[in-house]
Amino acid sequence: MSFNNLGLSKPILRAIQEQGYTEPTPIQKQAIPTILSRKDVLAGAQTGTGKTAGFTLPLLQLLSETERGNSKPHIRALIITPTRELAAQVGESVVTYGKHLPFKSSVIFGGVKINPQIGTLRRGIDILIATPGRLLDHASQKTIDLSKVEVLILDEADRMLDMGFVHDIKKILALLPAKRQNLLFSATYSDDIKKLADKLLNKPELIEVAKSNISAESVEQVVHPVDKGRKRELLTHLINEGKWKQVLVFTRTKHGANRLSGQLEKDGITSAAIHGNKSQNARTKALADFKAGTVRVLVATDIAARGIDIDQLPHVVNFELPNVAEDYVHRIGRTGRAGNEGEAMSLVCVDELELLANIEKLIGRKITSIKIPGFRVDPLIEAEPIRNGRQGKAKQGGGRQGGRSSGRNSRGRSNTRRG
Predict the structure, then answer these.
(1) Which end of the chain, N or C, is more open, meaning fewer C-beta atoms within 10 Å of its C-beta?
(2) Which of helix, strand or coil describes residue 102?
């Protein structure tokens, strides 16, 4: 099947062709016709499946089918994302595929000045991509009108709930007209997602192209046992021995990301850290340098990495395993995209063996363990509780006591709320 068979107009097909795409991905084959039928959709799609174009393309087609006339543009479509990086990525997709259409779009998120955003909104736009916090900032200042929204899209809804945005989403829904089309995209189907879907969606079509929580088949996964104190040394060894040009490395905490990035620089490996405490300009520059190849290693926390979209990223390294097993699937989904093969390595110390067991239970298989010569594990070292830097609570052996680690502060609000 080609894009020509999916009911898309010539201007959209032209933009797709200019990007070099000829055949839709499985999620696009299912989602585009369903969305064009104006049904609500609950879609389960892992990162890297082409889901962004899966809702961007039919959205542009739907808006094209209704003439706005000569009136000033107003917000007809609202796309909500959990992070700034993902908002920027979705915004790029809208611009790319809508380049031959008359629509105006804008991306708004926190971490940057609000006044330029106010000016853009006043001039009028058709499609708005936003993070929840900054969207509510505009709503509170009455600088935004959502009363004519025809299509609402929640992208990576599971991550939004993990980050504590559920109350913000409810506030946003109250600002929207009752009659609208709703599209909810999520990598996983938790009970919270099902509850949100029940409230938000009207007789939705269920679209699922891969089983939830199953790691990508095109990603080769391996565990390297190592003592905690020698992880950085092993990482440097792997990068130099493999002559890696581009590798995304995950840490559990912002402080850990900064520290590791600095240590790699001392080892002669160009590196940059990306996390929620970095300014938006710093995050944008770090990602641009990484994509351009001027930085070999990008060290990221889970939330900051959301929205990183690199088609041919060959290596992902879990410098520290995540406290929540589902985050492992999101992490390794950064490689092995669009039919390319990828490699995901986890540097696992004795403290993390329970976390590893949780991950293997989730993905339904044992991950191959390979010992690196010269990095023999000291059997006398005992496991210590893992301190979760985001909540400041120790967890024995990385277990899941206390529920999800979601970056919330003592009041239960997300530390990254202004996204």
Answers:
(1) N
(2) coil
Q: Helix, strand or coil for residue 316?
A: strand
Cα 76 to chain center, whole Å?
24
* pLDDT, tens digit (0-9, with 9 covering 90-100), for 153-201: 999 898 888 888 989 999 999 999 999 999 999 887 778 888 888 889 9
Per-residue confidence (pLDDT) for residue 391, from 0 to 100 = 36
219-398 placed in CATH 3.40.50.300: yes
Instruction: Give 109-146 pLDDT, tens digit per residue.
Output: 998 899 999 999 999 999 999 999 999 999 999 999 99
Residue 122 vs residues 20, 75, 117, 142, 251: alpha-carbon distances, Å: 35, 11, 9, 11, 41
Amino acid code (one letter) for 39? K
Contacts for 227 with CB less than 8 Å, ≥ 6 apart: 349, 350, 375, 377, 378, 381
Per-residue pLDDT at 317: 95
* Mean of pLDDT values over 363-374: 91
**To which H or E segment does residue 207 belong?**
strand 205-208
Cα–Cα distances in Å, from 112 out to 16, 278, 305, 340? 31, 12, 19, 35
Structural domain boundaries in the chain? 3-208, 219-398
**CATH among 3.40.50.300, 3.30.365.10, 3.40.440.10, 3.40.50.2020 for 3-208:** 3.40.50.300
Q: What is the C-alpha separation between 369 and 194, in angstroms, rounded?
A: 36
Residues 6+ apart with CB under 8 A from 124: 72, 73, 74, 104
The token pair that represents 404 in the structure block:
């999800």
Instruction: Give yes or no on whether 3-208 and 219-398 have one common fold.
Output: yes
Structure tokens, 223: 């565990």
The structure tokens listed for 127 are 């499609």
In sequence order, which residues have a C-beta less than 8 Å from that of residue 115 and are 6 or more positions away? none
Question: In terms of DSSP bridges, do strands 297-300 and 247-250 run parallel, antiparallel, or are they unpaired?
Answer: parallel
Q: What is the mean pLDDT of the chain?
A: 84
pLDDT at 394: 42
**Positive/negative CA dihedral, 147, 149, 150, 155:** negative
Q: Which amino acid is at 194?
A: K
pLDDT band at residue 402 using 50, 70 and 90 as cut-offs: very low
Among the listed residues 83, 87, 90, the one whose alpha carbon sits nearest the alpha carbon of residue 160: 83
